[in-house]
């Protein structure tokens, strides 16, 4: 393989022999999978893509299509590989490479999924594809990896949703924060972010009540009190228990002030 010069590659690339192009592309492809050299795979892909139109309707089209999808996957061009593997599955539903293609299509979108603060289009696609794979291949070769990826992406979406709700708290929009955090809890009942969400919902409502006019304070404190109870019932030894109890003590003082005003 190392003896093949650029001149020889260009000669095959510009030539008319489909067989020569396929054989050389396959050599580059296999060599790149072994040593991870991106340049070899790019050359292989160029040759495969050049001959693929002439393969349509022929048995060789299946392997060429898979090589193109897998080649893009190998070099990290995941949006392309995700799409190419999808096309492969639709075009060759009886292929013995179907399971691998289904997993790698999902994994391509998993690899393309950005950090939680960015747009999560690829994340939603990856979750959908991973779930399809898990349902279709419950004893599949890639089941454990797919399950792990699914859990990771689900957590990423939960984190994004939680951080959006928590942002209202940072911005001191206390009523909006309590509402958004409550919505997060209802939408994600098993989330690992729920303890923090319960606490910050309570804290937001407490501050909202504390800053209210006296005529509105008691009703808003009562809601904060119900949020306090929600937190301590679920997390009696939670991370925020001391803070929650301190706010509860401040609430008692506010109630006393209100009682005196009403006498």
Task: Provide a descriptive summary of the structure in words.
Residues 25-179 form the Outer membrane lipoprotein BamD-like domain. This is Outer membrane protein assembly factor BamD. Pfam families: YfiO. The protein has 263 residues and is an all-alpha fold. The protein has a domain at 171-263: Serine Threonine Protein Phosphatase 5, Tetratricopeptide repeat (Alpha Horseshoe), CATH 1.25.40.10. The protein has twelve helices and no strands. Helix 5 (78-91) runs antiparallel to helix 6, helix 8 runs antiparallel to helix 9 (174-187) and helix 11 packs antiparallel against helix 12 (241-262). The longest helix is centred in the middle third of the chain and has 28 residues, at 143-170. 32% of the residues are buried.
Structure at a glance:
The protein contains twelve helices and no strands. The protein has about 260 residues and is mostly helical.
List keywords for this structure.
signal; mainly alpha; cell outer membrane; 263 residues; single chain
Element-level helix/strand string: HHHHHHHHHHHH
Number of helices, counting only DSSP H or I runs of 4 residues or more: 12
CATH topology of the domain at 171-263: Serine Threonine Protein Phosphatase 5, Tetratricopeptide repeat
What is the distance, rounded to the nearest whole angstrom, between the alpha carbons of the first and last residues?
95 Å
Indicate the topology.
Elements: H1 6-14, H2 18-35, H3 38-51, H4 60-74, H5 78-91, H6 98-112, H7 121-136, H8 143-170, H9 174-187, H10 194-210, H11 214-234, H12 241-262
Helix pairs in contact: 2-3, 2-4, 3-4, 4-5, 5-6, 6-7, 7-8, 8-9, 9-10, 10-11, 10-12, 11-12
């Amino acid at each position: 393989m190392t003896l093949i010069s650029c001149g020889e590659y260009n000669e095959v690339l510009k030539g008319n022999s489909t067989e020569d192009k396929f054989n050389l592309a396959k050599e580059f492809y296999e060599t790149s999978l072994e040593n991870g050299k991106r340049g070899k795979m790019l050359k292989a892909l160029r040759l495969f893509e050049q001959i693929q139109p002439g393969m349509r309707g022929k048995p060789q089209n299946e392997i060429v299509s898979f090589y193109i999808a897998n080649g893009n996957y190998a070099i990290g061009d995941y949006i392309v590989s995700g799409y190419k593997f999808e096309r492969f599955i639709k075009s060759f539903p009886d292929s013995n490479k179907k399971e691998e293609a289904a997993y790698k299509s999902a994994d391509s979108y998993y690899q393309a999924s950005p950090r939680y603060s960015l747009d999560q289009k690829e994340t939603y696609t990856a979750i959908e594809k991973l779930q399809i794979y898990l349902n279709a291949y419950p004893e599949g070769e890639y089941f454990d990896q797919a399950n792990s990826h699914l859990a990771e992406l689900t957590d990423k979406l939960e984190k994004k949703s939680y951080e959006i709700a928590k942002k209202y708290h940072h911005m001191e929009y206390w009523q909006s924060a309590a509402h958004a955090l409550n919505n997060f809890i209802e939408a994600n009942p098993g989330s690992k972010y729920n303890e923090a969400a319960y606490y910050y919902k309570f804290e937001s409502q407490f501050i909202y009540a504390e800053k209210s006019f006296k005529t509105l304070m008691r009703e808003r404190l009562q809601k904060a009190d119900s949020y306090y109870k929600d937190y301590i019932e679920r997390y009696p030894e939670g991370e925020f228990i001391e803070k929650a109890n301190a706010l509860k003590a401040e609430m008692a003082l506010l109630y006393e002030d209100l009682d005196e005003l009403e006498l």
